[in-house]
Amino acid sequence: MERARVLIVDDDASIRETLELHFHGVGHEVTTAASAEDALSQLASVDPTLVVTDVRMGGMDGLALLETLRARRPDVDVVVMTAFEDMRTAIGAMKAGAYDYLVKPLDLDQIDLVVERSVRDQRLRRRAAQLAADAAEPYALSHLVGRDPRMIEIYKTIGAVARTRTPVLIRGETGTGKEVIARAIHFNSADAAEPFVAVNCTSIPEPLLESELFGHVKGSFTGATGDRKGRFELAGRGTIFLDEIGDTSPAFQAKLLRVLQEREFHPVGGERVRRTEARVVAATHRPLERMVREERFREDLYFRLRVVEIIVPPLRERRGDIELLAENLLREGAREMHRGVPVLAPDALARLAAYDWPGNVRELENALTRALVLGRGSTLSAGDLALGQESAAVDGADGASDDQSLAGVERAHILRVLQRTKGNKRQACRLLRISRPRLDRLLEKHGIR
């Protein structure tokens, strides 16, 4: 059993002594208090993980103590002791936020189970909170790197739009960091605890896109062996990020327009209307105005999505940020690889600044990752950087791929990331910024084992 710090509160000395001896005997740290007021005075010095309190005591009773503890220390579990004939009080205590209740006369085996469960649950809650913090941390405003005036304006827009639930359209070339901006909007909003659901509209076959977003009911099509919730429903009051929205069909655009207008949708094959409160953030690198003129993108959907528009400049137009970005990416990459952060030599910085970066920040990240993997010293020089065609040559020399098609480049990149993570799929998903199911589909698509 994991060690706990238990604070026992009871005005009956015999019960305090019995519980103190028992808890000491199974390895817990124990402090006792003869009243609720005494317990509160010891709260800071004891820092308990669990409080076990009687209900009926002189002065402040156990329910008042519970209410005070929930306000001051919501991380501390409170177990209430009550007499068998006073079950109404036990129910009231549970409604007020008690972790559990014990019925007198006390069963010591049951007490051990309650304490063990409390310790385990607290450990899981701490882990969940850390994972949530880790998920939000990379997309905090402080991690959007750049001092270019246009980036400063983007930061201001993120701060303003995060306070609302307004649809946002993010535009920019591939690799400029549109999803990073979408995540920054979500994780700086009042609904940051709600899900952020990212959907790349080009990675899902058109016939399945509607089912993926809106869900389906059993038997609605071949392979629909059960009901399934769509991404809009899973997003709750969070954010759904629709990447590459400019590549969707007019038929799908009509369905999405209805969701934005009515805030409701039908699962595929379903009759019952579902409501959605999710904020929609969309992104594209396509020229939507021209597509509207050519009737390849609905004008009404365009204006629905473009309530707030963020245009991300390509990296070649903000060369002053390249050094800052490179240093930040090197720190992150070195931390992932558990190695020291190398210094960029002047010739390396000059080469980075002179290159046009057609793949933008994503290409810069890939170039620096490759340099971290292959470089051995504490300094990276220009010779450690493979850019453009040199990068393709290095990939071919490594045996990853000499295929310069989109599929070939995709396969080579996945192989590099898997090599970097030593086959750890979870880490690979984090670096690639995709879900585990999508990674599995890509591995199968490219025949990677």
Q: How many strands appear in the DSSP assignment? A: 14
The order of strands across the largest sheet is 2-1-3-4-5
Radius of gyration: 28 Å
General form: globular
Distance between the termini: 41 Å
Task: State the secondary-structure class.
Answer: alpha/beta
How would you characterize the largest beta sheet? Answer: 5 strands, parallel
Number of domains: 3
The CATH class of the largest domain is: Alpha Beta
Percentage of residues in helical conformation:
40-55%
Annotation keywords:
five-stranded parallel sheet, 19 helices, single chain, 13% strand, alpha/beta, 449 residues, Helicase, Ruva Protein, domain 3, 49% helix, globular, Rossmann fold, 14 strands, 3 domains
Write the layout of secondary structure elements.
Blueprint: E1 5-9, H1 13-25, E2 29-33, H2 36-46, E3 50-54, H3 62-72, E4 77-83, H4 87-95, E5 100-104, H5 108-136, H6 149-161, E6 168-171, H7 178-187, E7 196-200, H8 206-214, H9 231-235, E8 239-243, H10 250-262, E9 264-265, E10 274-275, E11 279-284, H11 288-293, H12 299-305, E12 308-311, H13 322-337, E13 343-344, H14 346-354, H15 360-374, E14 379-380, H16 389-397, H17 406-420, H18 425-432, H19 436-445
Parallel strand pairs: 1-2, 1-3, 3-4, 4-5, 6-11, 6-12, 7-8, 8-11, 13-14
Antiparallel strand pairs: 9-10
Helix pairs in contact: 10-12, 13-15, 17-18
